[in-house]
Amino acid sequence: NPPHIEIAKSLASRNVCQYFVLGGDGTHKGAMQTFDAMQEIGHECSVIGIPKTIDNDIQVIDRSFGFDSACAEALRAIDSAQVEATTNANCIGLVKLMGRHCGWIATMASLAARHVDVCLIPEMDLSLDKLLDYVSEVMRKKKHAVIVVAEGCGDTIISGTGETDAGGNKQLADVGLFLKDEITKHCRGLDIPLTIKYIDPTYMIRSVPANAFDSQYCATLAQNAVHAAMAGYSGVTVGKVHE
User: How many CA atoms lie within 13 Å of 181's alpha carbon, on the beta-carbon side?
Assistant: First the structure.
């Protein structure tokens, strides 16, 4: 990306006086640096941020747009796992959902599903041994189970390589496949018959059309972002708080 002073100069040369930025932590950090650069060159321009992440991990605001739609699609994956688990003998439906640093999607979708036996999120201090013991006990009693894990557990239950992607995000180990192998090995060691149906919807949960709630929420955020700019605010972001 070009230096923020160059972005500010480019906006000034085009006489842009309202600059709306949609994105997550990194994008907002960059927007504030552009805002600071605007002050340096004396260009009056309202810089307004609109938080964008389906993970719903932005502090202060009630929720980020897209989260509700993502949870609805994640629920479909969990329901599919439950169908697989209950219509096959001695079967576990294992679902891995998005959530690099938080388990909002996994948690809310699991609560909505009402038939999840285990939900694992990055915020938890997890013991693999206790998890495997619990899963084996559930399989002995029920003969089926549904397990949901957030992708961020790929940096808690196990550790990644420490490498980062092009966006600077830490590359996570694949916790879904890891759990599939560990659960299979543990149960077979206890002579518990087992098959695991692994479902990983990956980007599908954030690629679906916005539902009615998110469509209305996006309209509200957009209107308030424009209102903020027209009122002369700058270096701010919009979002519902304690609605």
Answer: 6
Distance CA 72, CA 69 (A): 5
pTM here is 0.87
3-state SS class at 80: helix
Question: Residues 25, 36, 55, 200: which is the catalytic one?
Answer: 55
Structure letter (DSSP) for residue 225: H
Distance CA 98, CA 74 (A): 9
Q: List 197's β-bridge partners, or say none.
A: 93
Quick: pLDDT tens for 130-142. Answer: 999 999 999 999 9
Contact 217/223 with Cβ under 8 angstroms? Answer: no
Tokens of 117: 């036996």
Q: Are the beta carbons of 55 and 26 closer than 8 angstroms?
A: no
Token pair listed for 133:
């013991």
Q: Which residues contact 132 (CB under 8 A, 6 or more apart)?
A: 182, 183, 186
55 classed as catalytic = yes
